[in-house]
Structures are given as structure tokens and as C-alpha cells.
Design goal:
mainly alpha; Four Helix Bundle (Hemerythrin (Met), subunit A); two-stranded antiparallel ribbon; 11 helices
């Protein structure tokens, strides 16, 4: 029987995770593909800035698009989904957008993009990056792009493509204004999500469907940490279920335990069972 004077066992308070614990493994093949996409942005920006070889430029763009296509699929195939991948993938897209628009805005060759469009891109990406970091810290969720956000990215990619190919100024202006409308509309959705989070403490239902946990649960590490917080029996350290607790010898009186093992008849002779 447990000592009534012994202090009661309490669940250990949750330990605050550092960055490496929250994001998981860094050096995985999917993360290497995302890093390759980050690295290839630099020569792409240089070729746009200097109006360099279109063959090299489109070859690097195809390589970057291929890594973007493969990194998530390789992560699922190899069971290497991590928080780092969910951070690196959108970060690479934002870095590519800012760098290519910067080159197309400030390069000496024509055509160029308007300065206000560059400022819109930089301000939007900075605000989304800061807001996404706050949401991830408070909810543990990484909010992915919705349909309008994906449409804005596709429109921006077409705008960059037409500018690189030297499209007609009227066509380029049309692409810029369409991209602006989609970028502003998707940004307002992000703002609405953050305001909802501040008011209710949780994301809207649609944003929850479009979000992913920063770290996959159910792995060995999660099970190991969970077992540390499970109340255990002093005898063997294993968790005891309520059903087993009710039938344990510690909760039975000596008479009850003896009566279950061997019934004693009134005349003192053993009674056949």
C-alpha cells in the first residue's frame, strides 16, 4: 500500500523546446533540395541583372522549379518531413521573388519593373514572414498558401518571365496590375488570419485546414517525452490503468485476496473448487 504521508506525484511541467527540437533534423535530402533552390537564386539574379545568356537562365530556372517539385515529395516518400522543410520551402520562394524583382527593377537594361511594385513585394513578404513566425510560435502551425496566394505567385512568375523575354510594355503593365491585385488580396487574407488569432486565440477554420504542424507528432522522440510526463507506479515505473489499479493487491484487503485464491469452508476442510 502507498504511504499516505508520501508527497503525491505530479505531472512534470512541459519543458520548453529549443529551436532544434521544435524543427527536427536539418540535414536531410528534402532540406538539401530546398537549400539548392536557395543557392540557385543567386546566379539567376546575376543573369537577370546583366541580361546574360537566356539558355543558362532558363536552365537554372528549370533546375529551381524541379527542386521545388521534388522536395516535398521526397520528404513524404522517405518519411523525412520536418519543421525545417516547412520553413525552408516558403523561405526559398520568398527569397527568389524578392531577388528577381530587385534585379528587374534596378538593372540598366529594359524593360524594368516600377519601383512601387518592388516596394510592394518586399513589404508584403516581410510582413508575411514576421506574421507567419508569430503564428508558428503561438499555435505550432505553419500556414500554407491558399488558392489566392498560389494564384499571386503564379502571376508574379509570369510577370518575371515576360520582363525577362522583353514583352510589349502594355502586356507587361497588364501583368503587373494583375499581380498587384492578387498580391494585395492574398495579403489581406493573411492579415485577417492574424487578427482572428489575436481575438480568439486560434486560427480560422479555413486556415486550420490549410496549415500543417511545425513538427510531426507520434515519433520516437515525442513518445519518449510523453512517457516522462506519465504518472507511474513506484514499484516498476509502468503506467497503471484504472482497471488494473482497482484489482491490484495494494487495494485489496487481506481477506479479499485470500478468498479469491482459496475458499475456506466452515468446517476448516478445503472445499473442492
Amino acid at each position: 500500500m502507498s504511504d499516505p504521508t508520501a508527497p503525491s506525484r505530479r505531472m512534470a511541467p512541459p519543458r520548453e523546446k529549443n529551436l532544434s527540437e521544435a524543427l527536427g533534423r536539418f540535414w536531410t535530402l528534402p532540406n538539401a533540395l530546398s537549400l539548392a533552390r536557395l543557392a540557385v537564386v543567386v546566379p539567376i539574379t546575376y543573369l537577370i541583372w546583366t541580361a546574360g545568356s537566356l539558355q543558362w537562365l532558363f536552365g537554372l530556372i528549370v533546375f529551381g522549379a524541379l527542386t521545388d517539385f521534388l522536395d516535398g515529395r521526397v520528404a513524404r516518400w522517405s518519411h523525412a518531413v520536418s519543421g525545417w522543410g516547412k520553413v525552408l520551402d516558403p523561405l526559398a520562394d520568398k527569397f527568389a521573388a524578392v531577388m528577381t524583382i530587385s534585379a528587374l527593377t534596378f538593372r540598366g537594361a529594359e524593360p524594368t519593373l516600377p519601383l512601387w511594385f518592388f516596394l510592394l513585394i518586399v513589404g508584403r513578404e516581410a510582413c508575411i514572414l514576421a506574421g507567419g513566425s508569430l503564428i508558428a510560435r503561438r499555435t505550432g502551425q505553419v500556414v500554407m498558401s491558399g488558392a489566392l496566394g498560389k494564384g499571386a505567385v503564379a502571376s508574379l512568375a509570369l510577370t518575371v518571365l515576360y520582363a525577362v523575354l522583353g514583352a510589349d510594355p502594355q502586356v507587361l503593365d497588364y501583368c503587373v496590375w494583375i499581380s498587384t491585385a492578387l498580391l494585395v488580396g492574398s495579403f489581406l487574407i493573411y492579415v485577417g488570419r492574424y487578427v482572428w488569432l489575436e481575438q480568439t486565440g486560434d486560427l480560422p477554420e479555413q486556415a486550420q485546414r490549410e496549415s500543417e504542424p511545425l513538427r510531426e507528432r507520434g515519433g520516437a522522440g515525442e513518445r519518449g517525452r510523453g512517457s516522462e510526463e506519465t504518472p507511474t507506479s513506484p514499484a516498476n515505473g509502468a503506467a497503471r490503468s484504472p482497471a488494473n489499479e482497482s484489482r491490484s493487491p495494494a487495494n485489496e484487503t487481506p481477506g479479499e485476496a485470500h478468498s479469491e485464491k482459496q475458499p475456506v469452508p466452515e468446517n476448516g476442510a478445503p472445499r473442492p473448487s
